[in-house]
Structure formats: C-alpha cells, structure tokens
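job 3f2a | input accepted
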Amino acid sequence: MSKFTIFTLFLSATIVVIVAELLVNEYIKYPGLQKQVTASVFHSQAPSATAGSSSATAQIGASVGTSAPEGTATIGNISFSLINDAGFKDISLQRVPFNGILFEIIDLRDFNSVPIVTQNLLQNNRIKVGTFYEFAAGSRLLSREVYQLLKDKAGKVIGASVNESNSFGDGSFYVNPVDHPDSVFLVVKSGDSVYSLAYLKDLHPQVKNLLAKLHAVSP
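job 3f2a | predicted structure (219 res):
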C-alpha cells in the first residue's frame, strides 16, 4: 500500500471522527431545541385564536344591536299580562333573538344603537300569528331618532310603501309590502320606546288596545 493511500485513509478517518464529535456535542448542548420551538409556536397561536373568536362573537352581537346573554337581556314592556288585558285570546309570547331583519324585509344588521326585544305571538302555543319588536331607546330623543331611521329604511324597501298615519302613540306609520296582504306591519313611537308590530289583520283590534295601554304607561 502506497504512502499516499495510507495518508488518505488516515485523513478520512480523522474527518469522520471530528464531524461525529461536533454533531454529538451540538445535540447534547441543545437537546430540547425542537421541542421548545414547537411549544412556543403552539402557545403563541392558541391565545390569538381564542381572542379572535371572542372578538368575532362580540362584533356579531353588536352588529344586530341586541341579543344580550341569557339572564341579562333587556326586559320588554309587552308582557303576557298586558296582552291578556288587551283582549288577546289563547295567545302566548315566545322570546327569541333578533335576527337583524325587521319584518323580514328591513335590514338592521348594522344597527347597534339600542337593545331590541323580540317576541313571537303564538296561537295555542304552536302557531305563529305575529312578532312584536321593542326598541328600548331609554329617552324620547333617541326614540325619535330610531323611529326616523326605521321610516327611512322602510321607504327604501323595494316592493313596499310607507304610510305615516300617526294614529298611535307619539307617531306611527304602516309598512305595506305587496306580497303580505293578510298581515299588518306597524311602527309606533311611544315615550322612550319604539314598537314594531307584525301581525295578522284579524288581531288589529287587540293591537290597538295594547298600544293604548303601552302609551298610557310610557315614560
């Protein structure tokens, strides 16, 4: 075997030993590096996802202007005893979240000024015959602004007309969609609240009594 071959083998063995030693030393020095990086990424992302979800939920709740958590929701002025006194028969109230669309035609998903209490009228606890919406403005000034906003938005609905009769409360108007001839859609400003009522025409006498009672106790 030539001297050059022996030198080459010795040099190769030396390089292998040096590289192996370096690799072993680096591993021993930083054995948990990969684990720590993985943990850091995980823990930094998890709170962001949670915060983002909470922010989105809050934004959605604010965009419809209502739907307070169960147990803290605004209490409406329209009660079961009041509708009984107004002459409704076999009617119950079902509290539901406001879906952002008034009368199923007026888009209020960007409205967040005041709480909106929404209650369905159920005949014999099963047949929906109307829906009452209460905008709890809390002041006469704000109730006038809400009333005007609803009238403006209703006037822009395609296929519907607005008739401001001022027959109830401090002011009122009817919304008349052409595709709902059997129902009444009425908005009434009374004291520091605004009431929007959708109901079958047969219930109009009872609704008139209800609005008179609400106006009598309005702040």
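job 3f2a | Residues 3-64 form one domain.
job 3f2a | closed
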